[in-house]
Amino acid sequence: MFRTPFCLLLLAFSVTASAQEGKSYLPVHVFSQCDNDSVGQRLAYKVREGLRRSSSMKVADSYGDSVIEMSLVCLDPSAGESGSVSRYSYSITFRNLKGYYDYQLTHGIGSCGTRRVEECADGLVADIDSEVGKLKQRIRDGSF
User: Fold this and answer.
1) Are 77 and 87 in contact (CB under 8 A)?
2) Nearest CA to 91 among 102, 68, 107, 73?
3) Among the four 31, 47, 75, 108, which has the fewest Cβ within 10 Å?
4) What region does 77 belong to: left with phi over 0, alpha with psi -120 to 50, or beta?
5) Is 96 exposed, middle or buried (0-12, 13-18, 19+ CB in 10 A)?
C-alpha cells in the first residue's frame, strides 16, 4: 500500500539529486563475480563503460549509492575456453530500502565470445535501461 509512493519518492530523489549537478542520471551499481574469467571481467568493465556513456544512468560506486543493481556471475571457463568465451548469469534489481530483499526486475543467462564483448555489454546496458523504463511505467500506473 505504501510501496508505490515510496518507490516514486526514491526514484524522484535519485534523479533530483543528480539534477542538482546539472544532470539527471539514475545510479546503477554493477556487481561482478568473474575473477577467473578474463572475458567476463572485460564484459563487466564494458557494462560500466556503457553506463558512463548513458544519457540516463551512471555508475554507482557502491550498492548503498545505487537505486538499481546489476549482478553478473561468470562460470569458471573450461581449459579449452579460457580467454575466449564467458558463460554468465545476470540479474537486474531495484533497491528495497524498507526490507531485506530487493525487487527483481529481470534475470537471464548468456554466453559471450572475446570478439563480441562490446556487443554483449551494449545489450546488457540496454536491458537495464529497458527494465528501468518498465519500472517507471509500472509505478506510474500503480501496478508495482
Assistant:
1) yes
2) 107
3) 108
4) beta
5) middle
Distance CA 47, CA 45 (A): 5
- Provide the 10 A C-beta neighbour count for residue 35: 10
Q: What's the pLDDT score for residue 86?
A: 95
Other C-beta atoms closer than 10 Å to the C-beta of 79 total 5
Cell numbers given for 113: 565470445
3-state secondary structure the chain: CCHHHHHHHHHHHHHHHHHCCCCCCEEEEEEEECCCCHHHHHHHHHHHHHHHHCCCEEECCCHHHCCEEEEEEECCCCCCCCCCEEEEEEEEEECCCCCCCCEEEEEEEEEEEHHHHHHHHHHHHHHHHHHHHHHHHHHHHCCC
Q: What pLDDT does 60 receive?
A: 97
Cut 0.90: pTM above it: no
- Residue 116, phi then psi, degrees to nearest 5: -115, 15
